Fold:
Amino acid sequence: MQEESLTLELTGYVPAHAVGRSKLRAAWWAVVIRFLIHGLVASAWISRIPGIQTSLGLNNAVLGVCLLGTAVGSAVAIPVAGWLVTRFGSKRVTTWSTVAFCLALVGPTFATGAPSLFLLLVLYGAAAGANDVSINSQAVAVEDALRTPTMSRFHAMFSLGGMAGAMLGALAAEHEVLPRIHMALVAAALLLAAALSGSLLLEANEPALKRSGEKIRLNKIPSGVIALVVIGFCMFLSEGAMADWTAVYLKQSLFAGPGLAAAGYAVFSAGMALFRLLGDAVTNRLGPVLTLRTGAVVAASGLTMALLSPSPHWAFPGLALTGAGFSVIVPLVFAAGGRVAGLKRGAGVALVSGCGYIGFLFGPPVIGFVSQWWTLRGALFLVVALSLTAATLARAVDGNRDQI
Structure:
């Protein structure tokens, strides 16, 4: 006990058995709030993309390049965030990255053209990437301490936040509320929620690993880790495409009004949120491999339905199915990445999410350029192909999953 107390004093690490159940429950709710905040911030921006595109006079190709700024910022920030988590703990990094993400939401509304929008989205993406790594590291720590699967429910909160934020964005767009006012109000409310819940997060610094386990050499990376990275790439690109282009697709290809177009992402998020709430139970029953494979096939089928629909209202069921199919995949990949043997938790999550964010790096401009050359509907069929690719690699989430 004396040795353990010394370890706690020197490292700040709290092993699972040393944390009281009441503190764990409080930490669980604090992580829930952080995922809700992340979803609300992301969807607030997403819901106003068509309006900002119109106000700045950007075509799809230029918009795609601007959206690349989000991916660039995320790709740069993610490895740094992984190091910060291993150095200072996920609680501290989660706290400050949440503040940065909320403040960054307002930035794009001050853009005066494509160059300034790109630069502001780099800052937004950096804050988003850092917050993504830190809250998922905190989520894995809480899940391990509780000794029961809960990652899917955490990600359900992101989807619920996405659904709520998209609905609020649709109302704001319908009533012609200026994006700057909309974003400022959302940021202020979420900063207050973050401040009230910050002390409840779990102090989860990890004990130092042996030097031999701190690094993974490129020529010795297990094939299962590579498969996780590929699945992450496919899903990040796919979810990013749905986030950035759903409203634009409904508006341009199916001639939806501003409110109805913004509601498309809310429908997608609703399907995702509902099945993420059930995802832990489904995973326990079917196992991670079959759960992931089934979800990927359902997503491909749903998006195909949405892309072949003649009207927005007919597309909505397909969007809901797409969200339902995507719902369990990223939580399973993050959980597997957080338990890669020989890597600290923050580094493991950063490895999978960082490589996955390369999908965001290439996704926005690829979809934009292909849609400019062909059609947006045709470009989004790329997401169908990526979903089916993820289905073929599903066994990776089993091979890298340790017992909780």
In short: The radius of gyration is 20 Å. The longest helix spans residues 114-146.
